[in-house]
Design brief:
InterPro entries: GH, Glyco_hydro_17, Glyco_hydro_17_plant, X8. Its main location: membrane. This protein has about 475 residues and is an alpha/beta fold. It has two domains: about 290 residues, Glycosidases (TIM Barrel); about 80 residues, no CATH class. The protein is built from 13 helices and 14 strands.
Length: about 475
């Protein structure tokens, strides 16, 4: 989960840590090395990726002494009480500040040498996040290559990652791939939704089928790395997400699409597989972003990527893990995805009327009102009815628009009947899972590489989005 700080009502660092803990977020990414934030993370158990801002790259690249001072001030002085595991050098340097390209790898080398001198190089990895824009033609993935203008820099960068056993940081946004694609790819492809047989996306050279634009973007990057004859460098997706609100000319920035993308992304990452070209290399992924940045400039969508409100409640329903109580699994009744809207409305009205479900929570201003969709409201009403009536013959059908699930649909402050606020995850994964980057190398995070990482970015300067 990335935390940008262009937020009018940004919580204090200590309150922010409380929000993270309340939502079982155990890994964060800072775009800078803010002292107040790093102090707040002390003894919290949260793993932290700190950032070198684009403005700092030149000085660090030109001077080993400046790099050593940066490490001493922003890393060594906080460890081990603050668990820093990675340094992201700049933000999309090659595309956002291309004049720094010649010095980028020097900056990374100088920082790594300073870590070695402090005996921290096995605990802290160094890399640099890059945009998909450095791959001019990402489809088909098998023919993708980095922009040749950056050949020298990319070779040095990949050599550094190989030598230091680090990973390639990729910012991959299917939202932009779809909205800038002029209708070339279907929306379902960007949202991880199943494609009909007539719309299958196939690489003509490898005959690999791509079920999502996300996988194709990752594979395009792997093939671009392969073109330099490097192998064994894992890709970590450091930014991805979907905006949930936009202007009149941004119809695809919606609550429904954001919820679909985020939940399907989580399911995709948790299936423990890689893209078609590297099926055994799980895709560690960070989601952008924690809070809406209402002070950001640009189109309306730029301000609405937040997954949580600043009080810690979820903007839209997020998939929790299956909740087990004793030896039994609690079953919930929810509306089917893609169900007919008219039938859903009929079912909702029946549940809240003759069915005698308690629908107070989905009234305007109440805890389960947002997102204000028929599907969300129907899920709440269906479940309330089912929990009260299934023991005496009540079913979870509602004219074929409902289904049972062991996945707790509760989110934020919206608690579904039958779930326990004290035992469920109010974030995306269960408390035993991790939100955050998982280093594919020794000395980094010690979590299974298949776990989704919700990155928290806490700096406004390195703005994350393209």
């Amino acid at each position: 989960m990335d935390i940008g700080t262009d937020v009018s009502t940004m919580p204090s660092p200590s309150d922010l840590v409380m929000v993270l803990k309340a939502n079982q977020i155990t890994h964060v990414r800072l775009y800078d090395a803010d002292a107040h934030m790093l102090k707040a993370f002390s003894n919290s158990g949260i793993e932290v990726m700190v950032g070198v801002t684009n403005e700092e790259v030149l000085g660090i690249g030109e001077s080993p002494a400046t790099a050593a001072s940066w490490i001493n001030k922003n890393v060594a002085s906080y460890m081990p009480s603050t668990n820093i595991t990675a340094i992201a050098v700049g933000s999309e340097v090659l595309t956002s500040v291309p004049h720094l390209a010649p010095i980028l790898v020097s900056a990374m080398n100088n920082l790594h040498k300073a870590l070695v001198a402090s005996n921290l190089n096995f605990q802290v990895k160094v890399s640099t996040p890059q945009s998909m824009d450095i791959i001019p033609r990402p489809f088909p993935p098998s023919t993708a290559t980095f922009n040749s203008s950056w050949n020298s820099t990319m070779y040095q960068l990949l050599q550094f990652l190989k030598n230091t056993n680090s990973y390639y940081m990729l910012n991959a946004y299917p939202y932009y791939g779809y909205t800038n694609g002029n209708g070339i790819f279907p929306l379902e492809y960007a949202l991880f939704r199943p494609l009909p047989s007539v719309k299958q996306i196939v690489d003509p050279n490898t005959l690999f089928h791509y079920d999502s634009m996300f996988d194709a973007m990752v594979d395009a990057t792997y093939y671009s790395i392969d073109a330099f004859n490097f192998s064994g460098i894992q890709i970590v997706v450091t930014e991805t997400g979907w905006p949930w609100d936009g202007g009149a000319d941004e119809p695809d920035a919606s609550l429904e699409n954001a919820a679909t993308f985020t939940n399907n992304l989580i399911r995709r990452v948790l299936n423990n597989s890689g893209p078609p070209s590297h099926p055994t290399m799980p895709i560690n992924t960070y989601i952008y972003e924690l809070f809406n940045e209402d002070k950001r400039r640009g189109p309306v969508s730029e301000k609405n990527w937040g997954v949580f409100f600043t009080n810690g409640s979820a903007v839209y329903p997020l998939s929790s893990s299956t909740r087990i109580t004793g030896n039994s699994t609690i079953i919930f009744c929810v509306a089917k995805e893609g169900a007919d809207q008219d039938k859903l409305l009929d079912g909702l009205n029946w549940a809240c009327g003759p069915g005698q479900a308690n629908c107070n929570a989905i009234q305007q201003g109440q805890s389960c009102y947002l997102p204000d969709t028929v599907q969300n409201h129907a899920s709440y009403a269906y479940n309330d009815y089912y929990q009260k009536m299934h023991s005496v013959g009540g079913t979870c059908d509602f004219d074929g628009t409902a289904t049972t699930t062991a996945t707790d649909p509760s989110f934020g402050s919206c608690t579904f009947t039958g779930s326990s606020s004290s035992s469920r995850s109010s974030g995306i994964l269960s408390p035993s899972s991790a939100f955050g980057p998982v280093s594919p190398t020794a000395g980094g995070a010690n979590l299974p590489v298949s776990e989704v990482q919700i990155l928290i970015t806490a700096a406004c300067v390195a703005a994350v989005l393209l």
